[in-house]
Amino acid sequence: MSIYIKKCENQEEIVQALQIRGKVFIDEQNVSADIEIDDQDYTAEMFLLYEDDIPAATIRIIKEDNVYYFGRLAVLKEYRHKGYASNLLEYAENVLKERNIKEVYLHAQIAAKDLYEKNGYSPLDNVFMEADIPHVMMKKVLI
């Protein structure tokens, strides 16, 4: 089995990332498509994790007012519990470290909060609702 991660560089790869997100967020979690796909997708950097050349997971990096956020981390159901979410976080963190970015934020679903804490993220705020799902803002200082 071979696993690799790469930045989405063409329309086909972007569509593959959006398809993964659609299956996870729209189909499984009943998030509205007009919330899931947003204007930030036009400027975000998207990445795909492949298992044996099959797109299995995705994450995006967004920059707003010189603040960096990870978002839309999604792993297809049949590829979960293999550490792919952590692999994507580490990869995206390294992308930012190469640019001398010192911290990153994300909106974590409460159901995934433990995953992020295991990867070094700390909760910052109270729970809030986003797309009718409880979330918490989290931060990681990149060393």
Secondary structure blueprint with pairings:
Layout: E1 3-7, H1 11-28, H2 33-36, E2 45-51, E3 54-64, E4 67-75, H3 84-98, E5 103-109, H4 113-118, E6 122-123, E7 128-130, E8 133-141
Parallel strand pairs: 4-5
Antiparallel strand pairs: 1-2, 2-3, 3-4, 5-8, 6-8, 7-8
**Which of globular, elongated, flat, extended, rod-shaped describes the shape?**
globular
Order of helices and strands: EHHEEEHEHEEE
Q: In percent, how much strand structure appears in the residues?
A: 35-45%
Per DSSP E runs of 2 or more residues, the count of β-strands stands at: 8
Helix content: 25-40%
Distance between the termini: 31 Å
CATH class wording: Alpha Beta
SS-based class: alpha+beta
- Return Rg in Å: 14 Å
Q: Extract low-pLDDT stretches.
A: none
In total, the number of domains comes to 1
Q: In DSSP terms, counting alpha (H) and pi (I) runs of 4 or more, how many helices?
A: 4
CATH architecture: 3-Layer(aba) Sandwich
For the biggest sheet, the summary is: 8 strands, mixed
CATH fold group:
Aminopeptidase
Average pLDDT rating: 96
CATH superfamily: Gcn5-related N-acetyltransferase (GNAT)
Descriptors for this entry?
about 140 residues, alpha+beta, Aminopeptidase, 8-stranded mixed sheet, 4 helices, 8 strands, about 30% helix, globular
In short:
The protein has 143 residues and is α+β, with helices and mostly antiparallel strands. The protein is built from four helices and eight strands, in the order E-H-H-E-E-E-H-E-H-E-E-E.
